[in-house]
Amino acid sequence: MDYGLFFVYLIACGAAAATGALFPTGAWYMALKKPVWNPPNWVFPVAWMSLYLLMSAAAARAATFEGASLGLALWSVQIAFNTLWTPVFFGLKRMRAALVPMAGLWLSVTATCLVFFTLDFWAGLMFVPYVVWVTVAGALNLALVQLNPEVAGGQTA
Amino acid sequence: MDYGLFFVYLIACGAAAATGALFPTGAWYMALKKPVWNPPNWVFPVAWMSLYLLMSAAAARAATFEGASLGLALWSVQIAFNTLWTPVFFGLKRMRAALVPMAGLWLSVTATCLVFFTLDFWAGLMFVPYVVWVTVAGALNLALVQLNPEVAGGQTA
Q1: Using CA atoms, how far apart are residues A138 and A95, in angstroms rounded to an integer?
Q2: In this complex, do A84 and B18 lie within 8 Å of one another by their Cβ atoms?
Q3: What confidence category does residue A32 fall into, taking pLDDT thresholds of 50, 70 and 90?
Q4: B111 to chain A: nearest residue by CA?
Q5: Least CB-CB distance to A91: which of B12, B73, B91?
Q6: How high is the pLDDT of residue A156?
Q7: Best exposed site among A40, A123, B93, B144 by fewest CB in 10 Å?
Q8: pLDDT grade, residue A157 (50/70/90)?
C-alpha cells in the first residue's frame, strides 16, 4: 500500500464525511417510521469512519497494481455519489429523490469492488464491507420511502 | 485517451453536476450584493459543462501514462469537494462555511493540474481552464461573503 495515496484518498473521504456534520439528522428524521431492522443511531458514524479508512486503504493498495485505472475511476464515481446522497436525503429531505444517488452509489461501489478483486484479493476484500453497508443503507432508504410515503417527496419542517 | 475511462469519469462529474439542479440559485442569491466583475448567470452552466468534459478527458488521458496514481487520487479529491460545495452554498446558504470546501476544491484542482503536467502536457493543459474557473469561483465566494456579511453565515429565507 502507498501511504501517500492513502492520505490523499482519505482527504476525498473527508469531503464526503463532512456532509454528515453539515447535514445532520433532525427531528423530522427521528419522527419517521423505521423498519424493525433499522440499525441503532450510534452504528452509522462508526460504520462510516471504518469504511472511509477501508476504502482509502483499498484504493491505495489497488493503485500499486498494473491496470488499476478503471478501478480508480470507479472509486471517483462512488465518492462523488457518496458526497451527493447526504445533502439530498438530510438536506433537502427528499427521500424518494435520494434513491437515485443511492442507486448510483450502490452500482459504483459494487463495480469498484469487483474490479479491485480482479487486481488484488486484498483490495477487493477491503471493499466488501462497503458493499454490504451500502446494500443496508439502500434498503433502509427504500424502506423509509415505503413506510413514510406522505413525506418521501420532501418536507419543509 | 481511453474512451471507456472518459465515460466513467463523466459519470462522476454527473453526480457533481446534479447538485446544480438539486440546489438551484434562488431569490436569496439574486438579492445578494454582487461584485462588478460577477459573470452573467448564463456563463455558469456553460462553464461547468465544458469543464466536466475537459476534466474527464484529462483524467482519461492521464490514466494512460505510467505513474498516474497520484494525479488520479487527487482527481477523486477534487470531485468530492466539487460535489460538496454546492449543497453548502446554495442548500444551506452558508456562504462563509462554503469557503472551506472551496479552498479544498481550489487546492485539489491546482494539485491535480500540476501533477497531470508532470505526466503529460495535454492532460495538464486540459485542467488549466478548471484552475482559472475555480479561482474565479473562489474569488466570487469570498466577495459575496465580504459584500453581504449580515447573511454570510446562513439564512433561513
Answers
A1: 11
A2: yes
A3: very high
A4: A8
A5: B91
A6: 61
A7: A40
A8: low
Contact B92 A22 (CB under 8 A): yes
Which residues are CB-neighbours of B58 under 8 A, at least 6 positions away? B116, B123, B124, B126, B127
CA–CA dist A68, A63 (Å, integer): 6
Interface touch A76/B2, C-beta < 8 Å? no
CB-closest option in B76, B82, B91 to A9: B76
For A140-152, write each residue's pLDDT tens digit: 999 999 999 999 9
A:B CB pairs within 8 Å: 131
pLDDT digits (tens, 9 = 90+) for B21-66: 999 999 999 999 999 999 998 999 999 999 999 999 999 999 999 9
Question: Letter for the amino acid at B132?
Answer: V
**Would the pTM count as exceeding 0.90?**
yes
Q: How far is A14 from chain B (nearest CA, A)?
A: 9
